[in-house]
């Protein structure tokens, strides 16, 4: 293509750059607002602001002057998936992708306009990739640290309805535990439950199965003492995902924390049919965890409305429940009652 023909295409190049500068800045502003007002994270909010300002400097008057909204055939184009978001994570992910795609367009068409802008947008795209990892990672861990009640599911014919009812009560952390179903059924249920949790802004953890957690894009996995190492689970799932570990004594707790568990289960506090034949760790282990645990933790095992107060008095910052919620006549009310009791206890601050 000769210089003359390239010059004739310059207005189209300017229009493309103009549209994508706007797209990238709008997407960054949406992400910035969440970092600022929801996460109260100054560094991430400032990174978004800095990138918006850099884009504004590249968005020159001559590029802006090429805008022709009236004749833009794309203003009426849409897709059903753009009309609604199922949760905050999907909203953030959609806008992160929007920014990344816009920066790629600026990088390529910028080569016809300004090599400096092309190079700068390429480097900015990598900054957005880093922001994406940090944002999703921080959000998961903040939600984990703020969760006081952890539902671990048990088999039920109306499983998803019960989980949704619990989520409607304010639950923010769910673990899908299923030792009986075949993998095909387990995968199908896990997909639906993951979508349900994300719709309500809750974390979805899958028990034991790292492969299924990866397949459904769960927020993490919960491992027993006999499961694979925390390091291997994190290698498979990625650094953004949560890895929890069950512990039954101080030695297991110390090892799990040393190996990098994001949270631990402490118990079973009382004997429970969920762990048939396993001796209770007792309230003493809860007291030990209250003094020594340095990551978020949940007392678990036979905890219900009759003994929840004793567990809280022993120092538990949060509890995991199975039957008390899954077998409740009204899971929504059961969750609200438990959260009411938990919220009377001061929140323990864990480092994110």
UniProtKB/TrEMBL annotation:
Residues 149-325 form the Thiamine phosphate synthase/TenI domain. 2-[(2R,5Z)-2-carboxy-4-methylthiazol-5(2H)-ylidene]ethyl phosphate binds at residues 272-274, 302. Pathway: Cofactor biosynthesis; thiamine diphosphate biosynthesis; thiamine phosphate from 4-amino-2-methyl-5-diphosphomethylpyrimidine and 4-methyl-5-(2-phosphoethyl)-thiazole: step 1/1. One of its GO terms (biological process) is thiamine biosynthetic process. It is an enzyme of class 2 (transferase). Its cofactor is Mg(2+). 4-amino-2-methyl-5-(diphosphooxymethyl)pyrimidine binds at residues 175-179, 207, 246, 275. NCBIfam families: PRK02615.1 (NF002727), thiE (TIGR00693). Condenses 4-methyl-5-(beta-hydroxyethyl)thiazole monophosphate (THZ-P) and 2-methyl-4-amino-5-hydroxymethyl pyrimidine pyrophosphate (HMP-PP) to form thiamine monophosphate (TMP). This is Thiamine-phosphate synthase. It comes from Chamaesiphon minutus (strain ATCC 27169 / PCC 6605).
């Amino acid at each position: 293509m000769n210089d003359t023909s390239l010059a004739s295409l310059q207005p189209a190049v300017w229009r493309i750059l103009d549209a994508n500068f706007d797209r990238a800045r709008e997407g960054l502003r949406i992400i910035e607002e969440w970092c600022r007002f929801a996460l109260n994270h100054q560094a991430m909010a400032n990174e978004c602001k800095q990138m918006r300002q850099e884009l504004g400097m590249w968005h020159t008057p001559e590029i802006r002057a090429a805008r022709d909204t009236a004749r833009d055939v794309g203003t009426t184009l849409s897709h059903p998936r753009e009309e609604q978001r199922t949760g905050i994570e999907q909203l953030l992910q959609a806008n992160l992708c929007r920014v990344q795609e816009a920066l790629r367009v600026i990088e390529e068409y910028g080569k016809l306009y300004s090599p400096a802008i092309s190079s700068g947008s390429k480097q900015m795209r990598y900054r957005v990739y880093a922001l994406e990892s940090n944002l999703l990672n921080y959000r998961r861990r903040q939600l984990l640290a703020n969760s006081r009640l952890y539902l671990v599911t048990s088999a039920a014919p109306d499983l998803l309805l019960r989980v949704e009812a619990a989520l409607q009560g304010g639950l923010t952390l769910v673990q899908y535990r299923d030792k009986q179903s075949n993998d095909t059924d387990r995968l199908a249920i896990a997909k639906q439950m993951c979508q349900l949790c994300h719709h309500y802004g809750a974390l979805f953890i899958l028990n034991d199965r790292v492969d299924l957690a990866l397949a459904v894009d769960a927020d993490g996995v919960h491992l027993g003492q006999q499961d694979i190492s925390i390091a291997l689970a994190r290698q498979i799932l990625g650094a953004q995902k949560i890895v929890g570990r069950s512990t039954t004594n101080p030695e297991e707790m110390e090892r799990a924390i040393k190996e990098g568990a994001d949270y631990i289960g402490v118990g079973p506090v009382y004997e429970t049919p969920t762990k048939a034949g396993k001796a209770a760790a007792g309230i003493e282990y809860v007291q030990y965890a209250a003094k020594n645990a340095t990551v978020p933790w949940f007392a678990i095992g036979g905890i219900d409305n009759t003994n929840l107060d004793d567990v809280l008095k022993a120092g538990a910052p949060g509890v995991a429940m199975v039957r008390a919620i899954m077998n409740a006549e009204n899971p929504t009310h059961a969750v609200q009652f438990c959260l009411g009791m938990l919220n009377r206890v001061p929140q323990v601050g864990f480092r994110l």
